[in-house]
Amino acid sequence: MMLSRRDLWLLGAITLLAAALRLVKLDASLWYDEVLTLVEFVRLPFGEIASTYTSLNNHVFYSLLAKASVSVFGESAFALRLPAVLFGVAAIPAVFVLARQIGLGALQSHLVAALLALSYHHIWFSQNARGYTGVFFLSIVASSLFLAGTRRPSPGLWIAFAVCIGLALYTHLTAGLYFAALGLVYVVWFGRRLLAPDAPLAAVQARPGLASWWPFAGFAGGGLLALLLHAPLLGDMVTVFTAVSEDGAEVVAEWRNPLWTLFEILGSLPGPALLAYVALPPILLVLALGTRETFRRDGVMGWTFVTHIALTLGVLIALSFRIWPRYFIVDLAFAMIFLVLGTFALADLLSRFLRAVLPPAITGDRLALLGCAGGLGLSLLLALANYTHPKQDFEGALALVRAEAAPGDVATSFGLAGLPLSRYFEPDWPVLSSAGDLEALLARGQRVFVIYAFPDHTERGNPEIMAILEARFEEIGWLPGTMGGGEVIVLASRPPAESPAP
Questions:
Q1: Of 65, 197, 257, 385, which has the fewest Cβ atoms less than 10 A away?
Q2: Burial tier of 95 (Cβ tally within 10 Å: 0-12, 13-18, 19+)
Q3: What are the tens digits of pLDDT across the range 59-90?
Q4: CATH code of the domain made up of 394-498
């Protein structure tokens, strides 16, 4: 795939824009999962990170990269998140290459890259000290290598493909679902080739590598690499996954509902919720047209997308796991491709349908460019909302307590806020484990400040503490964040005369 100098300059400009958008406010307050990653894994020596798996929060490859970053730049939110930024920025040219491999033209591929550069969700994850942008990047690169290897079989391509699989799985095991989907599609093509050797399929004729054993070697090599990397962790992983499986029945039922996942994605977008729902039908139409066009250009990637969605939903439901939107982050690349192809397909339909009333100069391609320009403008507006609040504003809550507290007052936390506050932000603060702990603090006769987060989860799980808070405390701060449901609440005790008995 040869690119003109103009294409290289344009792709470079889009990548630089993506980098700028992902570096803005990178030092904002850490949220719960990031603090957990830092205090439980990144602070360990390199060897212990690679051999410790006490929770699903250890995205091992990411934790090692974050450890290297904080070792060089010092411990900070910026350094902790830097590997996610680098993966996120590298994904821009990677998705451009994948679009070209699927059959999009240079202009359409630039539009796909620009949409990803401005994507609210991709920026959010690129500023999140977790391994999701690493999985995204490695999966997209592996997909391009797969397509290239099936067209021009080469041992080097399949070795690189295996390395991407191994590192993606080492970052997060849900990457295995994407590669399982890709593998299933390959097995179907390979099986059809074996069943009809004298009448090769058009796809196999265009991709002689589909009829070879090299893809098997790539998948097997990637699996073996992942197994070797995880070898020091296997004992811990069995324990953790057994515990997660036993706790599956306690997962909130709505979190296992695919519709909840869709509503969570829509609800995570900034702006009025009604706007997202109003825009949903036309977006679904464009996505449907784009999906059809992708199947026409490259059935392998089209079927991989469909299979990945179905397989991931099936596995998560079967295991009673939460169907978090982040498990589908790789599909964001396909969504961008579908949006661009769908816009061009819809514009072509409209131009033919309205040919009698449109000026001759208004062609389908020009309508498509107009539509894509509107999509890019809207994406930029949505992207800017990433900077209105931190993901979770623990630092803002602490600043509020410091501004309100007098000498001798006491501050505490409970629920999920207890870990980030007691192990990172304010190690000297006590953490409430029961209503009795709160009563003991109130008995001192001093003003008591309480911080908690994730109100839906925390309030439901701590009814006794909440009863005291409702009766004897007043809210002095409700701090929003871009993490859905992750608001931080600050309460202060009322003077005894103002506090009725709970």
A1: 197
A2: buried
A3: 999 999 999 999 999 999 999 999 999 999 99
A4: 3.40.190
